[in-house]
Amino acid sequence: MATQxxxxxxxxxxxxxxxxxELLDSFRGLAEEQMEVPLPDGWSGKDILAHVTMWxxxxxxxxxxAARGRAxxxxxxxx
Length: 79
Prior knowledge:
mainly alpha
């Protein structure tokens, strides 16, 4: 039987994977021109994906630090 920690971790990964798949599915099949059209909020599909990618690249190292019990870099900026 899985421990609470491993089942919670597995659930979190499943949730994140599902959300990522849903995001990618929403853009699948769009032509490049469609990805450049601004949405009502002013962001294009390309803008949204670039924003998500930037946060992934910033947060992945922090998640690794947090897993080792260390402070996140972004938390240090609040001091």
